[in-house]
Design brief:
Blueprint (H helix, E strand, L loop, with lengths): L1 H8 L1 H33 L3 H16 L2 H12 L8 H25 L3 H9 L4 H31 L12 H10 L2 H29 L8
Helix pairs in contact: 1-9, 2-5, 2-7, 3-5, 4-5, 5-7, 6-7, 7-9, 8-9
GO biological process, one term: glycine betaine transport
InterPro entries: ABC_transp_perm/SBD, MetI-like, MetI-like_sf
Organism: Oceanotoga teriensis
């Protein structure tokens, strides 16, 4: 009953923080894709560079989330951007890079070499092979990496509470500090729902942009 009363009384706050949480994801995702996919394409041409890049991305991903938010605060403080949306968005971009880069690399490297050779034999340029063969054939694997990055980002964005970026972390951490468990449960339910719905919508998008012959039946 306390949970229902809390939701009814605070629905404006719940709506505001949910939209703020979605805003953090919406701002970070395009940058993650625009940075991660080209890097994945570039490193697919050289195994040594690919290994070094994946190791660097892996190291960045292993930095504890809260520590990375703190690092962003320190780095951005001199330009007066240490608190608010900016450090949270940059931290989310950094965490999203690894799955997107890795899956783009795997997607391109998994294409049968005979298909590439056939395309070259038909006189296609490197750009045409990339745009008309490599990327379309890699979409399912690349989208899988993007979905992993987004769902992971939904959870990590809760830490934005500590840098005053807003979001659903407010209900969890403020609820814990005040022993208001209806707040904590509200936050947990909303974050879980947001993660599931985001994953579902991205699967729908993946089906929409994937060729019929490449879909798993």
């Amino acid at each position: 009953m306390n949970l229902i009363n809390y939701i009814l009384i605070n629905y404006n706050k719940i709506l505001f923080e949910t939209l703020q949480h979605m805003k953090l994801i919406a701002l970070s995702l395009p940058f993650s894709i625009l940075i991660g996919v080209p890097i994945g394409i570039f490193i697919s041409k050289n195994s040594k560079i690919a290994n070094i890049t994946l190791q660097i991305a892996g190291i960045l991903m292993t930095i504890p989330s809260l520590a990375l938010f703190g690092i962003m605060v320190v780095i951005l403080a001199p330009i007066k951007a240490g608190i608010g949306t900016t450090p949270a968005v940059i931290a989310l971009i950094i965490y999203s890079l690894m799955p997107i880069i890795r899956n783009t690399l795997i997607g391109i490297k998994s294409i049968n070499i005979k298909i590439i050779e056939s395309a070259k034999g038909m006189g296609m340029t490197s750009s045409q092979i990339l745009l008309k063969i490599k990327l379309p054939l890699s979409i399912p694997i690349i989208m899988s990496g993007i979905r992993n990055a987004v769902v992971m980002g939904v959870g990590i964005a809760t830490l934005g509470y500590f840098v005053s970026s807003g979001g659903l972390g407010y209900f969890i951490f403020a609820g814990l500090s005040r022993s208001r468990y209806e707040m904590v449960i509200t936050g947990v339910i909303l974050i879980s729902f947001l993660g599931i719905m985001t994953n579902y919508l991205l699967i729908k998008l993946e089906n929409l942009i994937t060729s019929k012959g490449l879909k798993i039946k």
